[in-house]
Amino acid sequence: MRTLLLTVASVACLAATGALAAGPPPTVKLPKVIDGGAKLSWVIRPDADKVSALANDDGARHGRAVVECVINGAGRPKDCVVIEAEGNGFGRFVTDLAGIFKAASKDADGKSSEGRKVRVTYALEGTSSHP
Length: 131
Hints:
The protein is an alpha+beta fold. The chain is 31% helix and 26% strand.
């Protein structure tokens, strides 16, 4: 009985340590406009819970990727192309991550956001980000 309790306590400590080490994912930087013009306003951004769930779904544990996308008529980055990627599944993860964002219909100059090109960069190394 004493051995069983010790084993259960050890496993619980290891699980708690792993959960603390993982921590929440780093904050995602806003996509950058790469075709000039006024800055876009982002009306929807992924939160830490969304990023974690998406990373788990895509199997992305660590890596870095840069994707370029075009803003569609609904304000969503679509038709993303992976420019660079390191890490298993990380290109797909950042492409999926980009699709969560939504831009306001007009930029700061009052021009439509549709058709604008943006670049999304995201990195995850253990518990730190290096975008």
